[in-house]
Design goal:
Layout: H1 11-28, H2 37-50, E1 54-57, E2 60-63, H3 67-74, H4 78-93, H5 101-120, H6 130-156, H7 162-171, H8 173-193
Length: 209
Amino acid sequence: MVHISDGVLSSPILAGGFLLAGAMILLTLRDVKAEEVPKISLITAAIFVASLVHFPVGPTSVHLVMNGLAGVLLGKRAFASVAVALTLQAVLFQHGGISVIGVNAVNMGIPALIAWQIFERRRGLSSPKREVVFGAVAGGFAVLGATLMLSAELLLLGEAFREIAALVLAAHVPIMLIETAVIGLAAGFLQSVKPEMLIRARGSGYGGA
């Protein structure tokens, strides 16, 4: 899972994670409009539910991440959505832990914001499949980015965590491929039937395509 657990990181790092996550939430929710709240809530619920379905991979298990979906559908609001979903996971099911909510939110939220920026670049492509292409790239990168951030943090903890970091990265390759396909197809489908669900290109991070 793309979570660091309680008891692994030092107090200064945990405090820094909360400070950075809090600042990012305030920044990305600035000027949020009332009509955005239902959509944010819906995607937050989707991320939360996705985490409940686990797939065994070797000695561990993984679950869908869906931070790329948040980036594609919510734009800059994705960070807050991911943070709330992680908080619910930690409080209700002890995924990760309370003390690492900030760090985990940063690990998953920043790649979600990069996925948003990747998806916005679709305007530079004239192909009718541009939403599929950029949605797929955004979805895959979001999982890869979160996994790389987690693996890097584990490596910084010392030699003892090297094998765990490698396992985390390898275990999430299938998830990255699944989300590449699912989010690409979802973006293409929404563009066909409900394009207003997709974020605006070069817009404020909400609204239609």
